[in-house]
Design goal:
The chain has 13 helices and twelve strands. With about 325 residues, it is of the alpha/beta class. Strand 2, helix 3 and strand 3 form a beta-alpha-beta unit.
Length: about 325
């Protein structure tokens, strides 16, 4: 009988808490059937790992150290990086691409809960759920909600999405069943591509001026830093809601604080700049602002979706098939 080819050697490279959360016993059982790996060992610091030369697959996640030339020199057999999280920018370096290492990401899996959070934020924003809930808690009696919030509701509202990223495209899919007019601003798209997604392509300034809800899904790049500065924030129509599940650096926090303090606009912010706002920030207490601590992405039971995506990619690699969710150097110039 022909002998079974040896399984490729693999290694976990991430923070220990993430390994424990992402790869429980059932997941490591599947993994050990595919690759040769020590399931309880995690490389949190490559300097402390004695046997790197045979590693062919690196399974990474949050907390992985940068894979620079010094590290990769110690891993001459490395052929693939399977990232059990979203962006690979924090650890995949030019040295990886120069060596022809294949890279995969679970960003598509992580986009699902972010898009779900965004949809909920949009629906609640137009219905003024948070504000009405606050007034109801305060007065504990029926009020004339239409008088307080004239025209509130979701029918035929205009939703503006900034960026057709993985999350942005998923949000577009989730918005399809609703009676919305959807606008999209993305410098890398043409009008026909936007139409195929169910949106109308417009310039960013127009989108800001006419949308009832603006949701940010652009990557953090030098050209998108403070994309919404004081001038652009002033374009938002009175009563509009700004939703940010993308990157905190997309918004000038000081300028947004001024707009929110005026009561003119509303905001739902899952990411901010800085990541945790100072305790004295007025945004914590304003009734027209909802702050959440970067929870839109995969947490709790949602991590299992990321795990399954990563394991499926490992299985594809071991079978000699192409990754379903590959990443390349060029894509990183326009992605998160």
């Amino acid at each position: 009988m022909p002998s079974t080819p040896p399984r490729p050697r693999a290694l976990f490279a991430m923070g220990r808490p993430h390994r424990d959360a992402l790869f429980p016993r059932a997941a490591t059982d599947r993994l050990t059937r595919l690759v040769d790996i020590e399931p309880d060992f995690v490389a949190e610091d490559f300097d402390q790992v004695p046997h790197l030369a045979a590693v062919e697959i690196l399974i990474t996640s949050w907390g992985c150290r940068p894979l620079d030339d010094t590290v990769l020199t110690r891993m001459p057999a490395l052929k693939a990086v399977v990232h059990a999280a979203g962006s690979v920018k924090h650890h995949v370096t030019d040295a990886c691409w120069d060596r022809g290492i294949q890279v995969s990401t679970a960003a598509a899996a992580n986009a699902v809960p972010v898009a779900e959070y965004t949809l909920a934020a949009i629906l609640f924003a137009n219905k003024r759920v948070l504000e009405i809930g606050g007034l109801y808690r305060e007065h504990r009696d029926a009020l004339d909600w239409a008088a307080h919030f004239p025209g509130f509701g979701n029918y035929r509202r205009t939703i503006g999405l900034v960026g057709a990223s993985l999350v942005g495209r998923r949000v577009l899919e989730l918005l399809r069943p609703h009676d919305f007019d959807i606008l999209l601003a993305d410098p890398h798209l043409d009008p026909e591509s936007a139409r195929s997604m169910g949106a109308r392509l417009v310039e960013l300034d127009e989108l800001l001026a006419v949308s009832d809800v603006v949701s940010l899904h652009a990557p953090a790049l030098p050209e998108t830093y403070h994309l919404l500065d004081a001038r652009r924030l002033s374009l938002l129509r009175d009563g509009a809601t700004l939703v940010n599940t993308g990157r905190g650096s997309l918004i000038d926090t000081e300028a947004l604080t001024a707009e929110a303090l005026s009561g003119r606009v509303h905001a739902v912010l899952d990411v901010t700049e800085p990541e945790v706002l100072p305790a004295a920030s007025p945004l914590y207490a304003l009734p027209n602002v909802l702050l959440t601590p970067h929870i839109a992405g995969s947490l709790g039971g949602e991590l299992a979706r990321i795990t399954r995506s990563a394991l499926d990619e490992v299985e594809r690699y071991c079978a000699g098939r192409e990754f379903a969710y590959p990443v390349n150097r060029a894509a990183l110039t326009t992605s998160a």
